[in-house]
Amino acid sequence: MADKGPSVLVVDDEPAHIEAIRRAFKAAGPAFEVKSAATLRQYRELAAADPPDIAVLDLILPDGCAVEVLSSPPAANPFPILIMTSHGDEGRAVQAMKAGALDYIVKSPGAFADMPRAVERALREWKLIQGHIAAEQSLRKIEQERKLISRRIMRAREE
After folding, report:
1. pLDDT tens digit string along 137-147?
2. Which of 28, 66, 76, 106 could form a disulfide with 116 if both were Cys (CB 3.0 to 4.6 A apart)?
């Protein structure tokens, strides 16, 4: 039996956009599981019930802005998030990237067709980021242990 591929949660209030993205993933092969939502509320419910491997959110949704999701505590987003929008606004792109988005995609037929590759690229980047975070945490722990041992040695010498 083949391993299950990455799950992708696409959040967009425009059904035609979701359908175009679904077609692109279907054309890329059966490796992807695509779910969809039309609002931030639906996104939160789906992500809480069954967290995806990655989420692709429209910037502006009927019940809010996707940047709200990015500005949640990091534990609330244990997966990468890509932001897509109909407007190629550099200011919004910078805001989204600073808030934690891995990519900012301007909607177009070409962008929809390229979505599987953008998702694969983002998942590779996310894996590297998570590896760096784990390595930094490990190094901090080792440093704390080293300091603790050094203090014990110093106390033992003083006695």
Report:
1. 889 999 998 88
2. 28
